Amino acid sequence: MLPGCTSWPAEVARGYREKGIWRGQTMGAMLAELAGRHRDRTALVHHDRRISYAELDAWADRLAAGFAAHGVARGERVVVQLPNTPEFIAIVFGLSRIGAIPVFSLVAHRATELTHLVRLSGATGYMVPETYRRFDHLALARQVQAETDTLRTLFVFGDRADGFVALSDVEAAGTAAREAGTAAGEALSPDADPSDVAFFLLSGGTTALPKMIPRTHDDYVYQSELAAQVCQMSAEDVYLAVLPVEFNFAFGCPGVIGTLQTGGMAVLADTPNPLDCFPLVERHGVTMTAMVPSVVALWLEAAEWNDADLSSLRLVQVGGARMTREFTARIGPGLGCSLQQVFGMAEGLLCFSHPDDPADAVLTTQGRPISPADEMLVVGPDGDPLPSGEIGELVARGPYTLRGYYRVPEYNARAFTPDGFFRTGDLARLTPAGDLVIEGRIKEMIIRGGDKISAGEVEDHLLAHPGVTAAAVTAVPDDLLGERICAHLIVDGPAPALAELKRAMHARGVADYKLPDTVRFVTEFPLTPLGKIDKLALAAAAASERKA
Ligand code: OOB
């Protein structure tokens, strides 16, 4: 495995292989197999473009050869920052075919996040769109290259630009290399090792900037295929990628990858907005999709007055944040389909409720792990498993749950138990039937709509503001987004306005979704008996002020 990643213990890995859980197939080889099976069937749809399985496979090959021709070598990391496009999917397959490793960045990330990712990953390549939502990604890429040491090549999806290699030129180089190679009888591209990293997902972040999650070919091929099976997907299914595909949920839970593994068709939406998505459901006969609760809320509202025909929908997966029973009860009737609750994380473990579970379980639990080989425990403060029904921390290990984040050994020592369970930082209990119920969080993370924000990261940015002597960041409840970001500050001198704090953070190159929504000024922080800042008390104070 790539140095800096933690492998599964050898005997555990052997067990997964012997049981056929890990198939020893790379993502690239899997696509070739799928292309052989489904040739002319449509794999991907975006606007008026339809890409067949055979076309996607040939495209990934051209890109693989093209990236190699542009110096991208096996094991090298390439940060990929693209909106929902077929290019994103083809590039991921293309890079992984030469054993290069895409790092999935959010399109909303800015200089702060990207310089961090490039430094942490040691990336040699960075792929951006020209502009997206009027933001100049070329300028961002130039800035990130100037501020870091390893970026050799900037790639752009769009027109040629100074200092960038255009994706069309990568493809052209690939076509030329393949023709020359075929003439010389060379093997196309040496395939990657299935037990090695296929790509890096990013953690929602709890303590600081995003951490990198190595996902191997073996683990991901297994996860997405199993997720598709649990959702009873078939070649007749049409999956709508409503969320950004760089999220694990939309990429492989089962997402786009699981859809391809069953021979179905994946439609890529530009935004989760129902006004964009409803016409896609109608036009393509979408049968399945995945959303976070704040997006479902928009869909439910729109479905009330919009007369779009959503009758093709059979299953809607909802996860990523907590929901009330009242809310979950509206989803099935409101959209005319079955609901599946999903508890998931980029780190691995996936729990799904099942449409044929008792109605109450579907409405109030996040179901069970998708794999019989998943191990999931609810433990108390001493690390011992708690009796069923008691609330404690959820810990997990299994064939698609990471054993360590990339290049953060000290953090890993705390984030995993000595026997390799990942400490999720989520508070949970199990029902007598064995279903998971998420009750809250230990980790200091705010879930604002679909976005995960690390309290510690925002605090660091606020502390950089002159006059701010102490900062604590908590969530405040919000009807629309679930939670919003509240900054509690102690200042020396005049209190800066919220707009001023936001402007300063924006100028530091922080993604907009992390900017605080409200600010409170206090003279001291309440402390817990152990002398830590009592964030529960701060959050409660903010919530009651908000109500008033
Ligand atoms: C998904 O992945 P991430 O990595 O963005 O966030 C993971 C965290 C979990 O640790 C938990 O705190 C929260 O998001 N979460 C939920 C939840 N599902 C995730 N909290 C309450 N209820 C749920 N159902 O969010 C993700 C990845 C794959 C599939 C679905 C969601």
TrEMBL record:
<dbReference type="InterPro" id="IPR000873">
    <property type="entry name" value="AMP-dep_synth/lig_dom"/>
</dbReference>
<protein>
    <submittedName>
        <fullName>2,3-dihydroxybenzoate-AMP ligase</fullName>
    </submittedName>
</protein>
<dbReference type="Pfam" id="PF00501">
    <property type="entry name" value="AMP-binding"/>
</dbReference>
<keyword id="KW-0436">Ligase</keyword>
<dbReference type="InterPro" id="IPR050237">
    <property type="entry name" value="ATP-dep_AMP-bd_enzyme"/>
</dbReference>
<dbReference type="Pfam" id="PF13193">
    <property type="entry name" value="AMP-binding_C"/>
</dbReference>
<dbReference type="InterPro" id="IPR045851">
    <property type="entry name" value="AMP-bd_C_sf"/>
</dbReference>
<feature type="domain" description="AMP-binding enzyme C-terminal">
    <location>
        <begin position="457"/>
        <end position="532"/>
    </location>
</feature>
<feature type="domain" description="AMP-dependent synthetase/ligase">
    <location>
        <begin position="34"/>
        <end position="406"/>
    </location>
</feature>
<dbReference type="InterPro" id="IPR025110">
    <property type="entry name" value="AMP-bd_C"/>
</dbReference>
<dbReference type="GO" id="GO:0016878">
    <property type="term" value="F:acid-thiol ligase activity"/>
</dbReference>
